Structure formats: C-alpha cells, structure tokens
UniProtKB/TrEMBL annotation:
PANTHER family: RAN GUANINE NUCLEOTIDE RELEASE FACTOR. This is Ran guanine nucleotide release factor. It comes from the Eukaryota. Belongs to the MOG1 family. InterPro entries: Mog1, Mog1/PsbP_a/b/a-sand. It holds the Pfam family Mog1. The lineage of its organism: Eukaryota, Fungi, Fungi incertae sedis, Zoopagomycota, Kickxellomycotina. One of its GO terms (biological process) is protein import into nucleus. GO terms for cellular component: nucleus. GO terms for molecular function: guanyl-nucleotide exchange factor activity; small GTPase binding. Keywords: Protein transport, Transport.
C-alpha cells in the first residue's frame, strides 16, 4: 500500500514498480510508477470530469491518450463495469483493455512498440472528478526503439497474459481508497 497525492489516496502498487517522481518531475494531478526492467508503468490521474457518459468517458480518455502518444494504431478489446468501494463517492467504474502502437519519446515511426493498455475510470461526481488509472504493458519492443537494448539486457519483455494481467490490474484499482477528500478542492 502506497500513499498517493500526499497521502490523500492509498493504493496497492506492485512492488516491481518505482515512484518516477524520485528522478523526474511529474505534474501535480498525476502519480507515475514504472518498472526498472521493462517499459511497464502505472499512472494515476485526477481529472476534471468529461462530458461523455458511462463507458463512453473511458473511450474518450483512451482515444485522447492514443492521440497524445501519436499512436499509429489503437484498438479497444473490451470495456466492462467493475465494482469498487462506493464509500468515497464513486458513482461508476469501468475497466478497458486495449492496445496501442506507439514510438517512445516521439521516435521515428519504425521504432513503434506494441503496448497492452489497461485503463480504469472511476467517476466521482460528488467531487466533480474523474480518477483515471492506466497500466501499460509492453508486448513487443521494436529493435529501433530506445528501450530495446535495456529490455534485452534485463531478459526481455515479460509475457502478457491478458486475463491474468487484467485481473491483477483490477485488484490494484479496487485497492484504491480516498483518505482525504480535500484533494478534490
């Protein structure tokens, strides 16, 4: 269990991930954790709610990330509602499984990597906020990617098992607890 946003939120974060803010500046509305040995990462964001309703809001966020990352291809595999602790005002929660083909750090298109994307949206209308939790798991790293050598040196990319990894991701999301609602202003 780690404290996010100055202790306002607690969540189980896999022990294989490290807090990126220890070596890089992260925007105040985000918490970012990354693997030391692969391109796996976990991002928690507090956002203003978008106008889209129900699972359409999660599709919107997925498409925004794909656009921001200049994804050559993106695909949504599934979206489903999840049950989460309603005690802190989550009205709805959805989880999305998808993929994106992206180049890291705006590298050339021939350096595209295939990434499995798990994304959860927690709608907290009481505080006029969306909490977006995203986990990216590399599936294929291009030989021309800046990540290729480090991934090869650490033994390659862990095999992605969609159902197992989705189940672990949902468990991480379900562990999220808001300790201080002052976070929402």
């Amino acid at each position: 269990m780690v404290e996010l946003f100055g202790g306002a939120i607690h969540m189980d974060v896999p022990s294989s991930l490290v807090d990126v803010s220890q070596f890089r500046e992260i925007p105040d509305h985000q918490e970012v954790y990354a693997s030391k040995t692969s391109d796996q990462n976990l991002i928690v964001e507090i956002l203003e709610p978008v106008k889209q309703k129900n699972h359409e809001a999660l599709i919107y966020h997925f498409e925004q990330v794909a656009e921001t990352n200049e994804s050559a291809e993106s695909q949504i595999v599934s979206i489903e509602p999840i049950d989460i602790n309603q005690s802190f005002g989550v009205d709805q929660a959805f989880v999305l499984v998808g993929s994106q083909t992206v180049a890291k750090f705006k590298e050339q298109r021939d350096a595209d990597n295939l990434i499995c994307v798990f994304m959860a949206l927690l709608r907290v209308s009481r505080f006029k906020a969306d909490i977006l939790v995203t986990m990216n798991l590399p599936v294929r790293i291009s030989e021309k990617s800046s990540s290729f050598e480090s991934v090869r040196e650490t033994g390659g990319i862990p095999q992605v098992d969609i159902e197992k990894d989705k189940s672990e991701f949902v468990a991480v999301v379900e562990s999220l607890v808001i300790k201080d609602t002052g976070l929402f202003g």
